[in-house]
Amino acid sequence: MDELVLYLKPLFLTIFLEGIAACIIGYRSIREQLYILFINAVTNPLLVYFSFLLMYHIGVEKSTLIIYLLLEPLVILTEYLYYRKIFSGRNCFLLSLVLNMISIVGGILCQRILWR
After folding, report:
1. Apex CA 86: angle with CA 105 and CA 42, to 5°?
2. pTM for this one?
3. Are 39 and 79 in contact (CB under 8 A)?
4. Which of 65, 79, 89, 92 has CA 20 to 30 A from 57's CA?
5. What is the Cα–Cα distance from 67 to 53, expressed in whole angstroms?
6. What are the boundaries of each domain within the chain?
7. What is the pLDDT of residue 79?
8. How far apart are alpha carbons 61 and 81 in whole angstroms?
């Protein structure tokens, strides 16, 4: 059960923050919000899993650099590719970048303030 919580906290935070940000940017329809939710439901647990794996094998400090320089850009790229197929005609790379930056900053703040 504790392992499940380790995955659900960042997933719910990501869905919450990115859902609000997407609304502000203009992705307000239920359909658009559901697509963003489903894409995050795939990418976020994978990111968290590989982050934990890295932290376990090489330590928190070393893995942090890999997470932010390799894994997060892969998530941004992956989500961009999905958004591009779904939201044609819009700047999907900017959408992916902005939503993920908000999610990253929100996650860092929550870790430092709420989840010590």
Report:
1. 50
2. 0.90
3. yes
4. 79
5. 11
6. 2-113
7. 98
8. 30
